[in-house]
Design goal:
By secondary structure, the chain is of the alpha/beta class. It is built from eleven helices and eight strands. It has helices at about 20-25, 45-50, 70, 105-120, 130-135, 145-150, 160, 170-185, 210-220, 245-260, 270-295, and strands spanning about 10-15, 30, 55-60, 75-80, 125-130, 150-155, 190-195, 225-230. α9 runs parallel beside α10 (about 245-260).
Length: about 300
């Protein structure tokens, strides 16, 4: 029997093999992007470890055309991946990067064609920088070639880490709206900030409530999954820089996202509702018969006519 993918993806980005059990205990069902740990772990070993742990994964395709068809058959692979944040300005603007510092679109176009040739039905995933998606007067024209080279879209907008006073959480919703419009509603995923990345003097790590707010917004707007970004980038790099309070909160949220909604308190069961409907239906039938009986009867009306003085 084919392995069914998760109904809602709860992912985490680029984590080492040694942490897989920890993340699974927190409610993660998908690993996103192989973590080479400085070249010590091969891509295929990381993917095999994810499978052995019972976790789904998204990862980059092999550059070897002979290997790619085998990767397409991996039971736990949910998608092939494109370059992360191809819309992020990088220097020097040579090699894979165009004059604007963005990854050249033809690189993604060629990879998409290779992946589809090997696995026509396996999605190709791309993640965008939220800061590049939401500028006020931007119409999305530069993103269109990247969107055409993917089936699943994601974005990361770390509003609290960037600037707590300037950037509202609603920018996550704005990015989702724009990607939906530009892509004709391709499935979307949202990266969730959940650590103090220390990337800006104006930013800070999110609180547990703010993490849950970002998740709830993504879910409410129709995201097919969320992907936690728990890292702290260099200097002082950490794979998992979450506080104990945030760990507790996301564990609770993950359980909620993967558990079917329970009936509200005092909400009747479906069996009780059906019984009530049957009772009401029987009463309506009885009333209808009574009405028909009354209508079929003949009635004698006595009228008392009194003379009226003129």
């Amino acid at each position: 029997m084919p392995l069914l993918p998760p109904g809602f993806v709860i992912g985490v980005f680029s984590q080492p093999v040694s942490s897989f059990a920890k993340w699974k205990a927190r409610g993660i069902n998908t690993l996103v992007s192989a973590e080479p740990e400085g070249g010590r772990v091969k891509k295929e070993d990381w993917e095999a470890a994810a499978t052995a742990a019972g976790l789904f994964f998204m990862d980059y395709p092999s550059d070897d055309d002979a290997v790619l068809p085998n990767e397409a058959k991996q039971t736990h692979r949910l998608a092939f991946m494109q370059n992360d944040e191809p819309d992020m300005t990088r220097q020097p603007n040579t090699g894979p990067f165009g004059p604007d510092g963005w990854t050249k679109p033809e690189i993604l176009t060629a990879r998409y064609a290779r992946c589809k040739a090997a696995a026509p039905n396996l999605p190709v995933f791309v993640n965008f920088a939220g800061t590049a998606v939401t500028p006020e007067y931007y119409k999305g024209e530069k993103h269109l070639p990247y969107i055409a080279a993917a089936d699943w879209l994601a974005h990361d907008w770390y509003v609290k880490n960037r600037n707590i006073d300037r950037y509202p959480v609603s920018l996550i919703g704005k990015a989702m709206d724009r990607l939906a419009q530009w892509s004709n509603n391709k499935p979307q995923f949202v990266f969730i900030e959940c650590s103090d990345q220390k990337i800006s003097a104006q930013g800070r790590g999110p609180t547990p409530d703010e993490v849950e707010e970002e998740i709830n917004l993504a879910v409410a707007k129709g995201a097919k999954g969320i992907i936690y970004f728990p890292q702290r980038p260099p200097p002082g790099f950490q794979f998992d820089a979450m506080t104990p309070e945030i760990i507790d909160r996301i564990t609770q949220v993950n359980a909620r996202l993967t558990t079917p909604s329970a009936p509200a308190q005092n909400e009747p069961k479906i069996q009780d509702l059906l019984a009530q409907l049957n009772t009401l239906s029987a009463r309506c039938d009885a009333m209808s018969k009574d009405v028909q009986m009354l209508k079929s009867r003949k009635y004698r009306i006595a009228a008392d006519v009194q003379p009226v003085d003129s």
